[in-house]
Write a structure and sequence with these properties.
The protein is of the alpha+beta class and about 290 residues long. It has a single domain, classed as 2-Layer Sandwich (Pseudouridine synthase). About 20% of the residues lie in helices and about 30% in strands. It is built from 6 helices and 15 strands. The strands form 3 sheets. Strands 3, 4, 7, 8, 9, 10, 11, 12, 13, 14 and 15 form an 11-stranded mixed beta sheet that branches. A two-stranded antiparallel sheet has the order 1-2. The protein has a two-stranded parallel ribbon with strand order 5-6. Helix 1 links the parallel strand 5 and strand 6. The longest helix is centred in the middle third of the chain and has 12 residues. The protein is globular, with a radius of gyration of 18 Å. It starts with a strand and ends with a helix.
Length: about 290
C-alpha cells in the first residue's frame, strides 16, 4: 500500500491472488532485508544483475512507448525516504534482478544493502528458484528436460532494432533452461500451441525467448524472435510465476498466478489432451506445482 507517497513494508504475508495484480507495482511478500515485488507488464527495469550483459540496459529502453513506466522510479518514490538504497543508482535502487518490459511477475528488491548483495550472491550461485509460464508456437515436446546452449547478444542491430540474444555455438554465455511441463492446446484457427512451465538455472538476457525460438517454438506475441501478436493475446505471453530464495531470514517463496490478460488468453484455447487440460486448470487456478 502507499501512504502519503511512501510504501509500507509492515503488511503481513498473504497468499497472492489475481485481484492483487493491478497495473501498479506492489509488495507481494517481505522480509527484514528482502521483498518480492509485483512488476506489471509495460514497466521497464533498466538495471542489471550479475549475469546480464550491457545490452540489457538498452533492452529496457528500446521499443518503449509513452505509457511505459520505470520500476526503479516507483521504488525510489515509494521507499526512498526510509530506505537509502532505494535512492542509490549505483546499487540498482536495490533491485537484484530484472524482467523484460512485457513480462509480468515477481522480482527481488533488497530494502537494505545487506539484503541486496545477499540476493545478488544467491543469484550468482544459482540458489534462487525461478519458474516461468509461457505460451509458444507449435507442439513442444514435454520430455525435453534441461536444455543448454550458449547465447550471444547482438547489442547493435540493423535499422535500430532492439538487442536480442541468439544461440552462438561456441561463443556467448552458457544458458540452462529446463522445460518442466508442457501441454498442447489449439486456438480457434486450429494452430497448435504449447503452454509451458520453465525453470531457469541461469538468468541471461532473453533466455527463455531465445532458447525456445532456437528450438523452433517462439513465444506467442514475441515479434523480436519471429512471432506475431494474435488478436486474442494482448502481449507477449511470458510470466514469472514463482520465486524462491533464502538469504538467512527464512524462505521467501512467492507464487504469482497468471494476471487477468493472460488468463483470458488461455481460456480461449482448447486443450488437446488430459495433461494439457490439467495444466491449464492448474495455472488458471493458481494452484501449487
Amino acid at each position: 500500500q502507499l501512504d502519503g507517497g511512501q510504501a509500507s513494508l509492515d503488511a503481513t504475508r498473504l497468499p497472492v491472488t489475481t485481484s492483487m495484480l493491478v497495473d501498479e507495482p506492489r509488495v507481494l511478500q517481505r522480509q527484514p532485508r528482502l521483498c518480492a515485488i509485483w512488476k506489471p507488464p509495460g514497466w521497464t527495469v533498466s538495471v542489471s544483475d550479475d549475469e546480464s550483459l550491457a545490452a540489457e540496459q538498452l533492452t529496457a529502453l528500446s521499443g518503449s512507448g509513452g505509457s511505459d513506466r520505470a520500476l526503479q522510479d516507483w521504488i525510489e518514490k515509494a521507499f526512498g525516504q526510509e530506505h537509502p538504497i532505494a535512492r542509490d543508482v549505483g546499487a540498482s535502487y536495490g533491485l537484484a534482478q530484472r524482467l523484460d518490459r512485457l513480462t509480468s511477475g515477481s522480482l527481488l528488491w533488497g530494502s537494505s544493502y545487506g539484503g541486496y548483495f545477499a540476493a545478488r550472491l544467491h543469484l550468482a550461485a544459482r540458489r534462487v528458484r525461478k519458474v516461468y509460464c509461457c505460451l509458444c508456437h507449435g507442439a513442444l515436446q514435454p520430455g525435453l528436460g534441461l536444455q543448454q546452449a550458449r547465447l550471444l547478444v547482438q547489442a547493435v542491430r540493423p535499422d535500430g532494432e532492439p538487442p536480442r540474444s541468439s544461440m552462438g555455438g561456441s561463443r556467448g554465455m552458457l544458458a540452462r533452461t529446463e522445460i518442466a511441463t508442457a501441454g498442447h492446446l489449439a486456438c480457434q484457427g486450429g494452430e497448435v500451441l504449447s503452454l509451458v512451465e520453465v525453470r531457469l538455472h541461469t538468468g541471461l538476457m532473453h533466455q527463455i525467448r531465445s532458447h525456445l525460438s532456437g528450438l523452433g517454438h517462439p513465444l506467442v506475441g514475441d515479434a523480436t524472435y519471429g512471432s506475431s501478436m494474435p488478436d486474442w493475446c494482448p502481449r507477449m505471453f511470458l510470466h514469472a510465476r514463482r520465486l524462491g530464495i533464502d538469504i538467512g531470514d527464512g524462505p521467501l517463496d512467492v507464487e504469482v498466478p497468471l494476471p487477468q490478460d493472460l488468463r483470458a488468453a488461455v481460456r480461449q484455447l482448447t486443450p488437446l489432451s488430459g495433461a494439457a487440460r490439467g495444466l491449464s486448470a492448474r495455472l488458471l487456478s493458481g494452484g501449487p506445482e
